[in-house]
Design brief:
single chain; alpha/beta; six-stranded mixed sheet; 21 strands; 15% strand
């Protein structure tokens, strides 16, 4: 029997796919394109990857299967030719406080081997250099590099007395559980503001013990100061911490570098070992590009295989544009784009073949000058005997594909169909949304709008910024550019810290399955009031979380059953059949629509069908940011990072009452070329309302339409952090910088 040369999909109906039939070649780099919401992810992730993951999971026993990623079987008649799938998405790696770039890429494992074999003095085996192992971790911070310390300066409001709530910790103020242990013991004046107390009195209140004894006043034998009591209750407990306790810890503590290991995470013995004159901690703080140069000088035959493996991994990280990171960098601090590139690098050394790699917008967060290295990495995975499916909007990636597939032609119900399959050259000639966008000339530059003043960011030193003082013009759109790691986000963070600003980033807007586009943007109450007016009943009846919710499923529409060691089951509620409301509520309609019918409408349909001008205007804000295809009742937990950001923009458009400064982090993420015009119109509206708009962006169309440009660099990490150019976009010519070259190259037709 001849080997299968295609992934075959027949009659796929997942999400908005419409009887989709498709044959995708294997062992090829295939790029799937289409407008936002057209069904690209429904095909690649929710159909192909989901079926492959489901079938692989079914080969394991129930106990093991319950510990593997959960895949829901897609709605399709037949899917064949599948291989095991590896999904490389944009979700941040996250992890816990012990996870670093070094541990997640295995490069720290290789370094540990080096130190255990040729480090002097000899300390022991490789686990002696692991901060996750008792043999190697610092005993003071348990290998975390930091200790949590009480932020004592936040404990007291010196302008208040004890009776007025001078101790601001929960439970310590007037009427609190521990209040009487300080105010009623006769040692302290409960009615005098603490600012009028002596320093010795305040120390006795805070620390007790010796400080209280020095005060010379009688205190109860069991007296415990505010600080030790707080630390005992909140920091020295092994109990599960409630959200309230966690919030208190965040408010009244701060992380400080461990005084024992100075952030190295390792114990004293491990910190004494050196290789090439450097300790493990010093190696971990070198930028990866610099570390690569250092490691390459090792010529010991005893560790040649380790050096080869380490240099190969480090070199791949440099080539993919991550040379500015350090191995000590916590994974929790990585952006979505950085996380995705690290995930990709992890697979380079794999000897597995016949895998299917599914990659979601790998160019997110990449400067145009770095896209080539990412494409080469994808081609390497393909040439190693694997199939690579990429969801992408960047023409530079499409141009290198063996085959391009376009899903569309529109979004939501107007999409889900195969509109093109073939080569990139054929796509450019095709009459499809992507074909037409590729043939469209770049958006024209426009006359810059006049500024009304400046915001000064003074002496910015965050991360790699080199003591920058920058003036950002007001009432215009300013774009921050530069290669990944050049300091754009750091400068934006300094702006937010020094001046009040609203940040619109790509973090999830909600993890609550009940949250929807209309609840988040505040439109839901208006819809409930409309139904209440038309039916002369209370508005609470039309809330699934309140009086009108189905009592069986509590208004969720599904029933979840925990099957212990087997995978839990989520099934449609048999009482409301997934409609979430009681029959009495569903019987009350507006122009033939029940409240559940409204949830099934797209934003575009709702604007036309809901007879309320106020609701229509509010919904039009969602349509304005390119989200007219979303269903009103769609869970926000299903949205991509780019969609989440646009929902936030829509909310701001609706709520803006006074001018402010908006900072947006790559708002073109997830946007088709044809959707960028709509985004620019939205940003223009914010500016026209008198707001300052600052955008971190790599997209050249957005850069060209900015009123002011600030380019950072020239390189990443310690090679960046300086201003290469600030001024009008049209004046940025003739400079030997990555951004200037990209603008010049893109201007050539």
């Amino acid at each position: 029997m001849a080997p299968t040369r295609h992934i075959t999909v027949r009659r796929a109906h997942t999400n908005n796919l419409v009887d989709l039939d498709l044959d995708i070649p294997r062992h090829r780099l295939v790029v799937v394109v289409g407008v936002s919401g057209s069904g690209k992810s429904s095909l690649v992730f929710d159909t192909i990857a989901a079926e492959a993951g489901y079938q692989l999971g079914e080969t394991f026993p129930p106990f093991t299967r319950n510990r593997l990623p959960k895949w829901s079987r897609p709605d399709a008649e037949r899917i064949a030719g599948l291989t095991p799938v590896i999904v490389i998405d944009q979700r941040r790696i996250g992890g816990n406080a012990r996870s670093t770039v070094g541990t997640i890429t295995d490069t720290w494992t290789y370094l540990r081997l080096l130190y255990s074999r040729i480090g002097t003095p000899h300390v022991g085996e490789s686990n002696c250099f692991s901060f996750n192992d008792p043999a190697g971790m610092c005993p003071t911070c348990s290998g975390l590099g930091e200790v949590v310390a009480s932020a004592v300066e936040r404990f007291l409001d010196l302008d208040k007395s004890l009776a007025d709530g001078a101790i601001v910790l929960p439970g310590f103020g007037h009427g609190g559980y521990w209040y009487s242990l300080y105010a009623d013991i006769g040692t302290f004046d409960a009615h005098t503001p603490l600012r009028q107390w002596s320093e010795a009195e305040r120390d006795a209140l805070l620390y007790g013990g010796e400080a209280a004894a020095k005060l010379g006043r009688r205190t109860p034998k069991e007296y415990e100061g505010v600080v030790p009591r707080f630390e005992r209750i909140y920091l020295h407990t092994s109990d599960h911490l409630s959200e309230r306790k966690q919030d208190t810890i965040r408010r009244f503590t701060s992380a400080q570098t461990c005084p024992e290991c100075d952030g190295d995470r390792l114990n004293k013995a491990a910190r004494t070992a050196v290789v090439l004159g450097r300790t493990p901690g010093e190696m971990s703080r070198l930028e990866i590009a610099e570390l690569l140069d250092v490691v390459r000088t090792l010529d010991s035959a005893r560790v040649a295989p380790v050096v080869a493996a380490l240099t190969e991994r480090l070199d791949a990280m440099v080539r993919i544009g991550l040379g500015y990171l350090t191995l000590a960098r916590p994974t929790t601090s990585l952006s979505g784009g950085e996380s995705q590139r690290i995930k990709t690098v992890r697979h380079l050394g794999s000897s597995l073949t016949e895998m299917t790699y599914v990659v979601d917008e790998p160019t997110v967060g990449l400067h145009p000058s770095d896209v080539e290295s990412m494409v080469e990495l994808l081609e390497h995975l393909c040439s190693s005997g694997n199939s690579v499916l990429v969801v992408e909007h960047d023409p530079a990636v499409m141009a290198r594909a063996d085959e391009v597939i376009e899903i569309g032609p529109g979004a939501g119900a107007a999409g889900g169909r195969l509109v093109f399959q073939g080569t990139f050259d054929d796509l450019r000639r095709g009459d499809t949304p992507t074909g037409r966008a590729l043939r469209r000339r770049a958006l024209p530059e426009r006359a810059p709008r006049p500024e009304t003043g400046y915001l000064t960011v003074a002496d910015a030193r965050r991360n790699n910024l080199q003591h920058l003082t920058v003036q950002i013009p007001r009432s215009v759109m300013t774009v921050l550019t530069g290669v990944a790691g050049s300091g754009k986000s750091s400068l934006a963070a300094e702006l937010v810290e020094q001046h009040e600003a609203i940040v619109i980033d790509q973090k999830p807007v909600s993890t609550n399955r009940r949250s929807t586009p209309i609840t988040y943007t505040g439109i839901a109450p208006a819809i409930r009031r409309l139904f209440a007016r038309r039916n002369d009943v209370p508005a609470s009846l039309f809330s699934a979380n309140s009086d009108g919710g189905c009592p069986e499923c509590k208004g969720t529409g599904v029933i979840y059953t925990d099957l212990a060691f087997m995978e839990g089951r989520e099934v449609m509620c048999e009482t409301c059949h997934g409609r979430r409301f009681t029959p009495e509520v569903l019987a009350r309609t507006v122009d033939g629509l029940s409240i559940a019918d409204v949830d099934d409408l797209t934003v575009e349909q709702a604007v036309a069908r809901l007879p309320d001008k106020g609701i229509a205007r509010a919904l039009e804000q969602l349509a304005a940011v390119g989200l007219d295809y979303l269903r009103l009742g769609q869970s926000l937990s299903t949205l991509s990072g780019g969609e989440c950001q646009r929902v936030k923009i829509a909310k701001e458009l609706r709520q803006v009452e006074q001018t402010t400064t908006y900072v947006l982090d790559e708002p073109t993420t997830g946007l088709h070329m044809s959707d960028i015009d709509a985004l620019l119109h939205v940003l223009d509206r914010l500016v026209e309302q008198g707001n300052d708009v600052v955008v971190i962006e790599h997209n050249l169309d957005v850069i060209r339409r900015a009123d002011w440009l600030i380019d950072l660099g020239p390189g990443p990490g310690r090679h960046g952090g300086t201003i290469l150019f600030e001024g009008r976009v049209a004046d940025y010519t003739g400079y030997d910088t990555p951004t200037c070259r990209a603008l010049a190259d893109a201007g050539v037709e």
